[in-house]
Protein backbone atom coordinates (compact mmCIF):
# COMPACT_ATOMS: atom_id res chain seq x y z
CA UNK A 1 0.00 0.00 0.00
CA UNK A 2 1.39 3.39 -1.02
CA UNK A 3 1.76 6.13 1.59
CA UNK A 4 0.67 9.56 0.37
CA UNK A 5 1.51 12.71 2.33
CA UNK A 6 -0.84 15.67 1.80
CA UNK A 7 0.54 19.06 2.83
CA UNK A 8 -2.35 21.52 2.58
CA UNK A 9 -3.40 24.45 4.79
CA UNK A 10 -7.04 24.49 3.64
CA UNK A 11 -8.84 22.17 6.07
CA UNK A 12 -11.76 21.35 3.75
CA UNK A 13 -9.47 20.47 0.83
CA UNK A 14 -7.31 18.40 3.17
CA UNK A 15 -10.30 16.43 4.43
CA UNK A 16 -11.70 15.88 0.92
CA UNK A 17 -8.36 14.67 -0.43
CA UNK A 18 -7.91 12.42 2.58
CA UNK A 19 -11.30 10.77 1.97
CA UNK A 20 -10.74 10.47 -1.79
CA UNK A 21 -7.34 8.80 -1.53
CA UNK A 22 -8.41 6.43 1.24
CA UNK A 23 -11.40 5.36 -0.88
CA UNK A 24 -8.88 4.47 -3.62
CA UNK A 25 -6.92 2.23 -1.25
CA UNK A 26 -4.05 4.57 -0.39
CA UNK A 27 -2.61 5.09 3.08
CA UNK A 28 -2.78 8.81 3.81
CA UNK A 29 -0.76 11.11 6.06
CA UNK A 30 -1.76 14.76 6.42
CA UNK A 31 -0.07 17.98 7.48
CA UNK A 32 -1.29 21.58 7.43
CA UNK A 33 2.17 23.12 7.50
CA UNK A 34 5.85 22.60 6.82
CA UNK A 35 7.02 21.76 10.35
CA UNK A 36 4.31 19.14 10.76
CA UNK A 37 5.21 17.67 7.35
CA UNK A 38 8.92 17.58 8.25
CA UNK A 39 8.09 15.62 11.40
CA UNK A 40 6.01 13.12 9.42
CA UNK A 41 8.77 12.65 6.85
CA UNK A 42 11.31 11.99 9.59
CA UNK A 43 9.20 9.18 11.04
CA UNK A 44 7.45 7.61 8.05
CA UNK A 45 8.23 6.18 4.64
CA UNK A 46 6.37 8.31 2.08
CA UNK A 47 5.83 7.30 -1.55
CA UNK A 48 4.43 10.59 -2.91
CA UNK A 49 3.70 14.11 -1.66
CA UNK A 50 0.79 16.37 -2.64
CA UNK A 51 2.10 19.81 -1.76
CA UNK A 52 0.32 23.15 -1.61
CA UNK A 53 2.38 26.22 -2.50
CA UNK A 54 0.90 28.39 0.26
CA UNK A 55 1.52 26.93 3.73
CA UNK A 56 0.67 28.40 7.12
CA UNK A 57 4.30 28.23 8.31
CA UNK A 58 6.36 28.05 5.16
CA UNK A 59 6.54 28.20 1.38
CA UNK A 60 5.82 25.19 -0.79
CA UNK A 61 8.50 26.08 -3.33
CA UNK A 62 11.30 26.25 -0.74
CA UNK A 63 9.97 23.14 1.00
CA UNK A 64 9.99 21.28 -2.32
CA UNK A 65 13.65 22.20 -2.80
CA UNK A 66 14.44 20.97 0.72
CA UNK A 67 12.65 17.64 0.18
CA UNK A 68 14.36 17.02 -3.16
CA UNK A 69 17.77 17.71 -1.63
CA UNK A 70 17.21 15.15 1.12
CA UNK A 71 14.96 12.55 -0.59
CA UNK A 72 15.10 13.12 -4.36
CA UNK A 73 13.22 9.92 -5.20
CA UNK A 74 9.92 11.00 -3.59
CA UNK A 75 7.60 12.36 -6.33
CA UNK A 76 6.03 15.74 -5.55
CA UNK A 77 2.84 17.04 -7.13
CA UNK A 78 2.03 20.70 -6.46
CA UNK A 79 -1.60 21.59 -5.74
CA UNK A 80 -2.16 25.31 -5.98
CA UNK A 81 -4.45 28.12 -7.04
CA UNK A 82 -1.44 29.85 -8.62
CA UNK A 83 -1.92 28.81 -12.24
CA UNK A 84 0.26 31.40 -13.97
CA UNK A 85 3.13 30.25 -16.15
CA UNK A 86 5.87 31.63 -13.90
CA UNK A 87 4.60 29.61 -10.91
CA UNK A 88 4.46 26.48 -13.06
CA UNK A 89 8.03 26.99 -14.27
CA UNK A 90 9.24 27.71 -10.73
CA UNK A 91 7.67 24.57 -9.33
CA UNK A 92 9.02 22.29 -12.04
CA UNK A 93 12.48 23.87 -11.95
CA UNK A 94 12.69 23.09 -8.23
CA UNK A 95 12.21 19.42 -8.96
CA UNK A 96 8.43 18.98 -8.70
CA UNK A 97 7.17 16.09 -10.79
CA UNK A 98 3.79 17.58 -11.65
CA UNK A 99 1.64 20.67 -11.08
CA UNK A 100 -2.15 20.74 -10.78
CA UNK A 101 -4.09 24.00 -10.52
CA UNK A 102 -7.08 24.37 -8.21
CA UNK A 103 -9.88 23.66 -8.67
CA UNK A 104 -9.14 20.24 -10.10
CA UNK A 105 -11.22 17.16 -10.85
CA UNK A 106 -10.61 14.07 -8.75
CA UNK A 107 -10.16 11.87 -11.82
CA UNK A 108 -7.36 14.06 -13.16
CA UNK A 109 -5.60 14.07 -9.80
CA UNK A 110 -5.88 10.30 -9.36
CA UNK A 111 -4.65 9.61 -12.89
CA UNK A 112 -1.58 11.81 -12.44
CA UNK A 113 -0.88 10.43 -8.97
CA UNK A 114 -1.20 6.86 -10.24
CA UNK A 115 1.14 7.58 -13.15
CA UNK A 116 3.82 9.06 -10.87
CA UNK A 117 3.68 6.09 -8.51
CA UNK A 118 3.97 3.69 -11.44
CA UNK A 119 6.98 5.58 -12.75
CA UNK A 120 8.58 5.57 -9.29
CA UNK A 121 8.09 1.82 -8.93
CA UNK A 122 9.28 1.18 -12.47
CA UNK A 123 5.86 -0.05 -13.61
CA UNK A 124 5.25 1.36 -17.07
CA UNK A 125 3.06 -1.39 -18.51
CA UNK A 126 0.02 -3.44 -17.50
CA UNK A 127 -1.23 -6.70 -19.00
CA UNK A 128 -5.00 -7.08 -19.34
CA UNK A 129 -5.69 -10.52 -20.81
CA UNK A 130 -4.32 -10.26 -24.38
CA UNK A 131 -3.77 -6.49 -24.13
CA UNK A 132 -0.68 -4.55 -23.09
CA UNK A 133 -1.17 -0.98 -21.87
CA UNK A 134 1.96 1.18 -22.08
CA UNK A 135 1.49 4.12 -19.72
CA UNK A 136 4.64 5.93 -20.90
CA UNK A 137 3.48 6.10 -24.51
CA UNK A 138 -0.31 5.99 -23.89
CA UNK A 139 -0.57 2.99 -26.20
CA UNK A 140 -2.76 -0.10 -26.05
CA UNK A 141 -1.43 -3.13 -27.88
CA UNK A 142 -3.42 -6.25 -28.81
CA UNK A 143 -1.25 -9.21 -29.73
CA UNK A 144 1.55 -6.78 -30.53
CA UNK A 145 -0.55 -4.50 -32.73
CA UNK A 146 -1.42 -0.99 -31.59
CA UNK A 147 -5.11 -0.25 -31.11
CA UNK A 148 -6.05 3.28 -32.14
CA UNK A 149 -8.03 4.80 -29.27
CA UNK A 150 -9.32 8.35 -29.09
CA UNK A 151 -8.25 10.48 -26.12
CA UNK A 152 -11.58 9.96 -24.37
CA UNK A 153 -11.65 6.22 -25.09
CA UNK A 154 -8.19 5.91 -23.55
CA UNK A 155 -9.27 8.02 -20.57
CA UNK A 156 -12.27 5.76 -19.89
CA UNK A 157 -10.15 2.63 -20.24
CA UNK A 158 -7.56 4.02 -17.80
CA UNK A 159 -10.26 4.76 -15.24
CA UNK A 160 -11.39 1.14 -15.45
CA UNK A 161 -7.99 -0.59 -15.44
CA UNK A 162 -6.76 1.52 -12.54
CA UNK A 163 -9.01 -0.63 -10.35
CA UNK A 164 -9.25 -4.06 -12.03
CA UNK A 165 -12.09 -6.20 -10.76
CA UNK A 166 -13.73 -3.22 -9.03
CA UNK A 167 -17.13 -2.04 -10.28
CA UNK A 168 -17.26 1.60 -11.38
CA UNK A 169 -20.77 2.98 -11.66
CA UNK A 170 -21.85 4.92 -14.70
CA UNK A 171 -22.18 7.97 -12.43
CA UNK A 172 -18.56 7.62 -11.29
CA UNK A 173 -17.31 7.41 -14.86
CA UNK A 174 -19.44 10.35 -16.01
CA UNK A 175 -18.27 12.52 -13.12
CA UNK A 176 -14.66 12.03 -14.23
CA UNK A 177 -15.03 12.48 -17.98
CA UNK A 178 -17.96 14.83 -18.58
CA UNK A 179 -15.76 17.83 -19.41
CA UNK A 180 -12.68 15.99 -20.67
CA UNK A 181 -11.40 17.90 -23.68
CA UNK A 182 -14.33 20.28 -23.42
CA UNK A 183 -16.77 17.67 -24.74
CA UNK A 184 -20.16 17.09 -23.14
CA UNK A 185 -20.60 13.45 -22.19
CA UNK A 186 -24.01 12.19 -21.06
CA UNK A 187 -25.27 8.72 -20.20
CA UNK A 188 -26.04 7.81 -23.80
CA UNK A 189 -22.65 9.03 -24.98
CA UNK A 190 -20.91 6.88 -22.36
CA UNK A 191 -22.76 3.84 -23.72
CA UNK A 192 -21.46 4.66 -27.20
CA UNK A 193 -17.87 4.95 -25.96
CA UNK A 194 -18.05 1.66 -24.08
CA UNK A 195 -19.40 0.04 -27.26
CA UNK A 196 -16.51 1.51 -29.30
CA UNK A 197 -13.96 0.30 -26.76
CA UNK A 198 -15.36 -3.21 -26.90
CA UNK A 199 -15.34 -3.21 -30.69
CA UNK A 200 -11.65 -2.28 -30.64
CA UNK A 201 -10.44 -4.36 -27.67
CA UNK A 202 -12.62 -7.45 -27.37
CA UNK A 203 -12.29 -10.62 -29.46
CA UNK A 204 -16.08 -10.80 -29.49
CA UNK A 205 -17.67 -7.41 -28.67
CA UNK A 206 -21.08 -9.07 -28.24
CA UNK A 207 -19.66 -11.33 -25.50
CA UNK A 208 -17.16 -9.03 -23.76
CA UNK A 209 -14.57 -10.62 -21.50
CA UNK A 210 -12.47 -7.54 -20.68
CA UNK A 211 -14.95 -4.70 -20.06
CA UNK A 212 -17.82 -6.45 -18.32
CA UNK A 213 -21.23 -4.93 -17.60
CA UNK A 214 -22.56 -5.33 -14.07
CA UNK A 215 -26.23 -4.91 -14.78
CA UNK A 216 -27.88 -1.98 -13.02
CA UNK A 217 -24.55 -0.76 -11.56
CA UNK A 218 -21.78 -0.12 -14.06
CA UNK A 219 -18.66 -1.75 -15.50
CA UNK A 220 -15.50 -3.51 -14.41
CA UNK A 221 -12.33 -4.71 -16.12
CA UNK A 222 -11.29 -8.35 -15.77
CA UNK A 223 -7.55 -9.01 -15.88
Run of helices and strands: EHEHEEEHEHEHEEEEHEHHEE
Please give the alpha-carbon distance between the first and last residues: 20 Å
Radius of gyration: 19 Å
Percentage of β-strand residues: 15-25%
How does the major sheet shape up? Answer: 5 strands, parallel
Oligomer: single chain
The spatial strand order of the largest sheet comes to 2-1-3-6-7
Shape: elongated
Low-confidence stretches: none
Helix share of residues?
A: 40-55%
* DSSP summary, beta strand count: 14
Instruction: Name the average pLDDT.
Output: 85
Summed up, the helix count is: 8
**Which structural class is indicated by helix and strand composition?**
alpha/beta
Which key features would you list for this structure?
single chain; 223 residues
Short summary:
With 223 residues, the protein is an alpha/beta fold. The chain is 42% helix and 24% strand.
Description:
With 223 residues, this protein is an alpha/beta fold. It has eight helices and 14 strands. The protein has helices at 11-23, 34-43, 60-70, 85-93, 106-121, 151-161, 170-177, 187-201, and strands at residues 3-7, 27-31, 48-52, 54-55, 58-59, 76-80, 98-101, 125-128, 131-134, 139-142, 145-147, 168-169, 211-214, 218-221. The strands form four sheets. The protein has a five-stranded parallel β-sheet with strand order 2-1-3-6-7, sandwiched between helices. Strands 8-9-10-11 form a four-stranded antiparallel β-sheet, with no helix packed on it. A hairpin with a 2-residue loop joins strand 10 (139-142) and strand 11. The protein starts with a strand and ends with a strand. The model has no long low-confidence stretch (mean pLDDT 85).
Amino acid sequence: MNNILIVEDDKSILENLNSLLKSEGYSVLTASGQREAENILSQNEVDLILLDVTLKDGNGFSFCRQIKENTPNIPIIFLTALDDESSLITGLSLGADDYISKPFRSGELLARLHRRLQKKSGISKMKIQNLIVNFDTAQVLKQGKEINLSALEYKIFLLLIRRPGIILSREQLLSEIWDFGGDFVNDNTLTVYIKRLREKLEDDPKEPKIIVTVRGIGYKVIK
